[in-house]
């Protein structure tokens, strides 16, 4: 078995699942027009915040009667705002099949102390979506970033639901089709699929979610940072660019640049095609090599962004240290950065395949993965 290094290297070794690679055309001069040192409430700042909201609507195809707000604390902030502001009015079903979904379960059960129905599945699998009762509020993650398992579309979500659907879509938005008529609350953060900067989250509300906000007051106190209503009415300003507190205008400029780049590659369909091509290259590699496999067992649930892989070679003695060592070799060679599995996930690798990653870089990286695997098998044999 040869362990010669491949001749070609990826031009960009960034395959992190967040913050994700910047768009290929990014450089810092692109941010020169940022409204720095200006009030975000001045016309220039408000216009940029509004452009971020309307650009999001345009590219994601969010219906005109849905509200889009820029909120503090990234995707986590957006999800927490939704959970704390909306839940408690009726029964809640929590669906989780990896670390982030499990985190929302903990929040709802241990912090809000809601007696929720919890449905969980192991890493690589998904819960029984057919069993979900949409008389309840339902909280789920569209794409489980730490297991690489996503929902297979939105057909399982009832059109005539009485409860709300609350969807953490942070590693799905801009890479997967999101059926807005099925989603009442959708969240994501800038640092994910478009390769923006961390800091801010996006909260997208359907008319039914707004109606809940205006007709129901939770039993628990809400800090200012979570408050979406005042005197029983939605604070409309949050959804037109008047943020709850001070945003980073540098991060806003960066997001506006990312949205422009998204337009330049064909908008949402162009982004989906790029992610599909990237994930497809990894899937083909798994099909060709019997020592590696997708963690997501059912092809219908395999992510096209956070592709999680497991080593399946019987010669591997210690799965966790083997996977870490392979990731380390790829990092030391500057071939693939940040591709170790998430800390709570099974041992393996996670390759980000969102649209900011170039397929040519995925294709150049994969032979190096084979090289690192073989080198590590050899090292393990030598050490024995
Ligand atoms: C599914 C999911 N939810 C939430 C988060 C937290 O996102 P943020 O750090 O932007 O708040 C992440 C981050 O990777 C994620 O993948």
Automatic annotation (TrEMBL):
Presence of the UniProt keyword Transferase in the record = yes
**Span list, region Disordered:** 1-23
Against CDD domains, the record matches this protein to:
AAT_I
What's its top-level EC category? transferase
Reaction catalysed by this enzyme: O-phospho-L-serine + 2-oxoglutarate = 3-phosphooxypyruvate + L-glutamate
Q: Which UniProt keywords apply?
A: Amino-acid biosynthesis, Aminotransferase, Cytoplasm, Pyridoxal phosphate, Serine biosynthesis, Transferase
Which InterPro entries does the record cross-reference, listed alphabetically?
Pser_aminoTfrase, Pser_aminoTfrase_methanosarc, PyrdxlP-dep_Trfase, PyrdxlP-dep_Trfase_major, PyrdxlP-dep_Trfase_small
Give any single GO term for biological process: glycine biosynthetic process, by transamination of glyoxylate
GO MF entries: alanine-glyoxylate transaminase activity; L-serine-pyruvate transaminase activity; O-phospho-L-serine:2-oxoglutarate aminotransferase activity
Q: Which cofactor does it need?
A: pyridoxal 5'-phosphate
Q: Which residues form a coiled coil?
A: none
Q: In which pathway does it act?
A: Amino-acid biosynthesis; L-serine biosynthesis; L-serine from 3-phospho-D-glycerate: step 2/3
Concerning SUPFAM superfamilies, the annotation shows: PLP-dependent transferases
Q: What's its EC?
A: 2.6.1.52
Q: Which domain of life is it from?
A: Bacteria
Instruction: Output the NCBIfam families linked to this UniProt entry.
Output: PRK03080.1-2, serC_2
The family this protein is said to belong to: Belongs to the class-V pyridoxal-phosphate-dependent aminotransferase family. SerC subfamily.
Name recorded for this polypeptide: phosphoserine transaminase
Give the lineage.
Bacteria, Pseudomonadati, Pseudomonadota, Alphaproteobacteria, Rhodobacterales
């Amino acid at each position: 078995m040869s362990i010669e290094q491949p001749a070609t290297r990826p031009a960009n070794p960034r395959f992190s699942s967040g913050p994700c690679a910047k768009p290929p055309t990014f450089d810092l001069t692109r941010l020169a027009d940022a409204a720095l040192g200006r009030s975000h409430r001045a016309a220039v700042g408000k216009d940029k915040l509004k452009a971020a909201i309307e650009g999001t609507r345009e590219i994601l195809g969010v219906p005109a009667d849905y509200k889009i707000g820029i909120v503090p604390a990234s995707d986590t902030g957006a999800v927490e705002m939704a959970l704390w502001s909306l839940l408690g009015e009726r029964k809640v079903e929590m669906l989780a099949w990896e670390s982030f979904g499990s985190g929302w379960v903990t929040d709802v059960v241990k912090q809000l102390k809601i007696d929720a129905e919890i449905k969980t599945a192991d890493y690589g699998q998904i819960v029984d979506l057919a069993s979900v009762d949409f008389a309840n509020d339902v909280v789920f993650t569209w794409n489980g970033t730490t297991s690489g398992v996503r929902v297979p579309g939105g057909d399982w979500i009832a059109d005539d639901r009485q409860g709300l659907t609350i969807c953490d879509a942070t590693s799905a938005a801009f890479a997967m089709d999101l059926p807005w008529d099925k989603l009442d609350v959708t969240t994501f953060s800038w640092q994910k699929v478009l390769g923006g900067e961390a800091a801010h989250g996006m909260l997208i509300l359907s008319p039914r979610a707004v109606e809940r906000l205006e007709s129901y007051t939770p039993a628990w106190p809400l800090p200012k940072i979570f408050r979406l209503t005042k005197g029983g009415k939605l604070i409309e300003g949050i959804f037109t660019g008047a943020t709850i507190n001070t945003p980073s205008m540098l991060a806003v400029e960066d997001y506006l640049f990312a949205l422009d780049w998204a337009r330049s590659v064909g908008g949402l369909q162009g982004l989906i095609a790029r992610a599909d091509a990237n994930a497809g290259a990894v899937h083909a590699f798994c099909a060709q090599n019997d020592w590696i496999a997708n963690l997501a067992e059912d092809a219908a649930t395999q992510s096209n962004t956070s592709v999680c892989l497991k080593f399946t070679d019987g010669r591997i003695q210690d799965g966790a240290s083997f996977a870490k060592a392979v990731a380390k070799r790829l990092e030391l060679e500057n071939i693939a950065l940040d591709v170790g599995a998430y800390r709570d996930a099974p041992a393996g690798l996670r390759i980000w395949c969102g649209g900011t990653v170039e397929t040519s870089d995925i294709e150049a990286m994969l032979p190096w993965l084979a090289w690192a695997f073989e080198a590590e098998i050899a090292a393990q044999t030598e050490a024995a």
